[in-house]
Specification:
295 residues, two-stranded antiparallel ribbon, alpha/beta, single chain
């Protein structure tokens, strides 16, 4: 993906001014500098002015250097494999760290990402999301690969409080049946993170083509889900070793489900009571007091 972006820049060079062409040539030869240097530092490295760098970025359709740099950095990260992440974590862990340092680092990063979600709590988006959930005739959740665990968790929570949920996780025949039930009154939550699974994107586009409203939970505005979603929740998530730090993803799911449940409080309470009754009768072993022994 990063190679495709570099090729696009290279193809655009002949149409640029000499100074902007200088910026493009430097990027093609040194793509690793993007996402690392500030605008001032990058301009100094190339030997041109900051405004020239900005004009270069805008000529490619970006608002400025920050957006362009983040986009290129995102494309680079999307191509890193789990094996590479694990290798990097292993090297860090072998360089004289104290026992438990790696684990503490993981938890600190996950906690920091949840804190970012709290600090910029998307109250207005969640309110719109809950309104759409209440107005919908059916809801479905799409998530594959790394997003599979939170997608299943999301399904479990919603299935307890609403009969609107259409399960999407199963064999292809189950997915096809679920898609056939979606229409313009349906709402679909789609989750995808780097490296974005093709199946998730294909199922989400198919749902959108059937008129369903898409709410995307993804890593940033550059996600391929952004262009097909009505509401976008861009979360700070990270891969640490081969472990996905999904603290903010699960936190957001909890908030959405609780807000929806409270918005239809009476119905939620009735559905939960029915759920509890079935669980108690069928799925749990009920401990009973032993009867008196016969003499």
């Amino acid at each position: 993906m990063i190679d495709d972006a570099i090729d696009e820049i290279r193809d655009a060079l002949p149409k640029m001014s000499p100074q902007q062409r200088k910026v493009g040539q430097y990027i093609c030869e040194n793509p690793d500098t993007l996402g690392v240097l500030s605008l001032t530092g990058f301009a100094a490295r190339v030997g041109i002015s900051g405004p020239t760098v900005t004009r270069f970025c805008r000529s490619l359709g970006y608002s400025g250097f920050v957006e362009f740099s983040r986009r290129m950095q995102s494309l680079k990260q999307n191509e890193i494999s789990h094996a590479s992440y694990f290798h990097n974590a292993r090297i860090r862990n072998e360089r004289g760290s104290q026992p438990g340092d790696l684990a503490r680092n993981m938890m600190e990063k996950d906690t920091a990402n949840v804190r970012k979600l709290l600090d910029s709590y998307p109250e207005e988006k969640i309110s719109r999301c809950v309104t759409l959930m209440r107005e919908s005739s059916a809801m479905a959740i799409i998530g594959r690969m790394s997003a599979f665990p939170p997608a299943v968790y999301f399904e479990q929570l919603l299935s307890k409080v609403t009969p609107k949920l259409i399960p999407m996780h199963g064999a292809e025949v189950v997915q096809a049946a679920a898609l056939s039930r979606l229409d313009k009154k349906s709402l679909v939550f789609s989750m995808a993170f780097p490296r974005y699974p093709k199946t998730t994107l294909e199922l989400t586009r198919a749902a959108a083509e059937r008129g369903a409203t898409i709410i995307a939970i993804t890593n940033r505005g550059f996600s391929p889900l952004a262009e097909i979603s009505r509401i976008l929740f861009p979360l700070d998530v990270e891969i640490f070793s081969y472990i996905d730090l999904f603290g903010p993803v699960f936190a957001l799911i909890n908030v959405i489900c609780m807000e929806f449940s409270l918005a239809q409080s009476d119905q939620s309470e009735k559905n939960l009571a029915k759920y509890d009754g079935v669980v108690a009768d069928v799925f749990f072993k009920i401990s009973r007091k032993p009867g008196r022994k016969k003499m």
